[in-house]
Amino acid sequence: GNESVNLSIDSELRPNNFNTLISSLFGYPQYKGALPFVTTCSISSYYNDYKITRASGTFAVLKRYSIIRLTSGANAINLNKNLLVIAVESNYIIVRVLNNSVLIPEIDINPTIECVGNTSGYLTNNNVSFTAEILQNDTENKSEVYNGLITNSVAVNLSNNSLPTISIQSIGKGLKQKSSTEYFSTYVAPNDNVLNNTYACIYVDNIRTAMQSASINLQRSTVQQFNTASNKVQAIKQGVFSAEVSCNIYVLDDTVYDKYRNQESVGLCFTLPFDQSDSSAFVSYSFNNCKIVSYEKNDDTSIIAAVKFKVLADYRDISVNIQDSSDVTL
Length: 330
Prior knowledge:
- 5% of the residues lie in helices and 52% in strands.
- It has helices at residues 19-26, 255-261; strands at residues 5-12, 41-46, 49-54, 67-72, 83-88, 92-97, 106-109, 112-115, 118-120, 130-136, 142-159, 162-172, 174-178, 201-204, 207-209, 211-227, 230-250, 265-273, 282-297, 304-311, 320-324.
């Protein structure tokens, strides 16, 4: 019969570890965004957030829920803080400091503004593939090399009483079993920045909402193609992308329920920083155009609501934005 391979990777969620695999889901290499030099800029308070205004040029290269830092050209207190962009206009942005620290208002500054780390999210049919080697030290360095792998699903689970986890499913073209390593020179331990849920936040539009648990499921229909001349995979084609989010949130008011009842389109963003430092490592998942497809409470006295979101296409912008503080490139 036909030969094919599947690879499943399950792990605690860490920044910097899964960029290549997630990027393969979208068929697009990660990019690191940086704005051109920003001149004559001001920072001012805006309700509980901050407004960064520029006298000329545009902020259009930024997306809602991008995480940025001012890296130079501003007051030292304002530098190198993770700032969540919650609104983008041509000449100004509204930002929220992830660790709830403060920014100092300034005028006539020339800051360097960078979109932190790597971002995945633009859907293409580039079929970006990768190779994975599994080294089994306990069997005399026996090695399994999986090639032509393309990710077809990513599932992230968050819970208030356990570490966040990620599960990545991939299909590939072939498998080689070897008696020695092909790519490993020395064993490299994964980074120690295992994320926890202590600082995880969910934003429905721009409203920070307390949550008990959440699951994010990203899928792309991916098909292995064969022909009669060989039992090997000849090609892998990517198709339709879909995403769903389920979460249990604390009901503090009727805001989310009203959006469900009125069938409003909402934005959705999860931020998972490693700690509360200004420039903490982080992972974020955001969705610009969602509909709430169900909203359930066990009874009228419950303070927990089970809410399901369906991610829709957004032709004004990218629909899905996954950002990682890592500088790793594909």
